[in-house]
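Our platform keeps sequence and structure together, in a single record for each protein. Nothing more is needed to write down the fold, since each code stands for a local backbone conformation. An entry from our holdings is shown next, in its original layout:
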Amino acid sequence: MTSPSIVWLRDDLRLADNPALRAAIDRDEPVVVLYVLDEESDGIRALGGAARWWLHHSLADLDTRLRDRGSTLVLRRGPAARVVRDVVADAAAGAVFWNRRYGGPERAVDAELKAGLRDAGVEVASFAASVLFEPWTVQTGAGGPYAVFTPFWKACQAMPAPRAPLPEPREIPGPAAAPASDELDGWGLLPTRPDWAEGLRETWEPGELAARRRLRDFLDDDLADYDRARDEPAAGVTSNLSPRLRWGELSPYTVWHETVRSEAAERHAGPAQRFLSELGWREFAWHTLFHFPDLATRNWRAQFDAFAWPRLKPTHLEAWQQGRTGVPLVDAGMRELWRTGFMHNRVRMVTASFLVKNLLIDWRRGEEWFWDTLVDADAAANPFNWQWVAGSGADAAPYFRVFNPVLQAEKFDRHGSYIAQWAPDSGELEPLVDLKASRQAALDAYEAVKRAR
């Protein structure tokens, strides 16, 4: 009698460099590939709208690729610990494999499930697949987590090089009768009333093969200019790999090794190292979340609890969300976000700074909006970067650093191409606030934080 293996996928929707999948195949038993939509376990954050759109298409692509190799994707919805145990029983499985997660609620679910399955005699193993350096392996000399990026990244670079990525399996032996599966369309992940995803469909092609093509195109065509033009939103030289990494259509190991081995990296060592340091920033975000699980709701720097946010002006928040602030670079970024589910990183910093330090709106409001509208919003980078801009996070921009959106546009959108594309009418709108006066108001309000240090 066979005892199938279950591979429980989470944010690792790929076949190549998937250690959990490789372990199941190596067990030489039928493989059940499972995805659980868990919006019920304690502390698990429900996905935003743009993320749900991406998930639907990435799962559909993955199912097609699994069928091509002799397997299929089993979809279930509900609290993950219960659902996985149900599938183990349905399949009479002898082993369960997954790749590790690093958020607090997710780790709690995984630990409880692992203990329960082992007590029931089921083999369980988890693997490193989503970060290059697992958070507990990088420590300061005092044995604690890092709070500043530069020494963190130097410590990572002093460690053994990231392992080589695993090859994609050619065959994945499915069971004679797979456990019952939900219909993907029945999950309602796609918007219908209204269907606001036209811009996402025009911009993105989710899935592992598309992710690999984008990595190759970036390395071949854009890496050489990355160091010089990465901050120019109209230049089009950024990698656009963040949603691929967020959903695990590419592993960071694949991105790392493909970059290091590329001909472009040999010719352009500086831009390659700059790009790899952006992977390091992603690592730092997960490092911070692991040690501070409440990153999306609490100030990392406790002294920022002393900041007295003024009463919210809903009209200001709505104008920011809709890209109607009268500040052209801010409006261009917010409209790009709504249309495509994405925003250039330099513009993300500018729009976030404007919300927090010119409109004096709590960074958590902005984080929630990005969580709902970004296709690449993940539990680490999204709150981490918002706290960085607000000044309340790890390695944060000083509280007195306020991005001037006019000067930022003059420097990084010199010809106005980005603004012309996304917000050509913004200059005709009356600005919500005076930039100079609102900056000074923010500095005055931040004095309470300064005194609390």
In short: The two ends are 65 Å apart (CA to CA).
